[in-house]
Amino acid sequence: MKKSALLTGAILLLSANIAYADECKLSLDSNDMMQFSTKSLSAPKSCKEVTVKLNHTGKLPANVMGHNWVLSTEQNMQGIITDGNAAGLSNNYVKPNDSRVIAATKVIGGGETTEVTFSTSKLKAGNDYTFFCSFPGHFAMMKGTFTLK
Questions:
Q1: What is the homologous superfamily of the domain 24-148 according to CATH?
Q2: CA 124, CA 147: separation in Å to the nearest integer?
Q3: Sorting pLDDT into bands at 50, 70 and 90, what band is 61?
Q4: Which class for 80: exposed (0-12), middle (13-18), buried (19 or more C-beta within 10 A)?
Q5: pLDDT for 100-118, tens place per residue?
Q6: Residue 108 gets which letter from DSSP?
C-alpha cells in the first residue's frame, strides 16, 4: 500500500512539473504570406526561462522570404530593425550583440524550424513586450505582443 501511494505521489509530482515546463514553451508559425500565426504570446511569470519555437510553414527560401522572431520593447523595435537591415542576412538581420534585443532566433526559410530560450529575469510581469520579424519590410505585418502573466 505504501509503495502504491508513493508511486502515485511521484507520478502526480512529475505530471505537475511537465505541465509547468510546457507553459514555458511557446510555439508559433510563419508563412510565405508574411504572417505569424498569432499576434500575442504569454507565459506565466513563474517561468524562469521561456523557449519560443518558430516554424516556417511556407516553401520559399530564407534569402527570399525568411523569418525570424525578435523580442524587445516597443520603443526599441525601430532602432533594432534599422540596425538589423544594415547587419544583413548573415547576421539574421539583427546587429551583433545588440543590447536592446531580449531574444532572437536565426532567420529560417520554408520548411525550417528554429527556437530560442531566454531568461525572464529582466522582464516585468504585466508589461507588454513586442515581438517581430526583422527581415526587411516584414515587421509591418509580422509583429505582436509578449507578456509575462
A1: Cupredoxins -  blue copper proteins (2.60.40.420)
A2: 9
A3: very high
A4: buried
A5: 999 999 999 999 999 999 9
A6: B
Q: Cβ(89)–Cβ(62) under 8 Å?
A: yes
Give me the sign of the Cα torsion angle 33, 37, 39, 42: negative
Cβ contacts of residue 86 below 8 Å, gap of 6+?
95
Cβ neighbors of 110 (< 8 A, separation 6 or more) are: 32, 56, 57, 58, 59, 60, 61, 65
Q: Which amino acid, 127?
A: N
CB 82 within 8 A of CB 93: no
| Termini Cα distance of the chain | 41
C-alpha cell of 89?
542576412
Extract the C-alpha cell encoding 30: 510563419
Query: Model confidence over 2-20: pLDDT tens digits?
Result: 555 444 444 444 444 444 5
Residues sharing a CB contact under 8 Å with residue 72, sequence separation 6 or more, in sequence order: 80, 100, 101, 102, 129, 130, 132
The pTM of this model reads 0.86
Supply the pLDDT for residue 24: 97
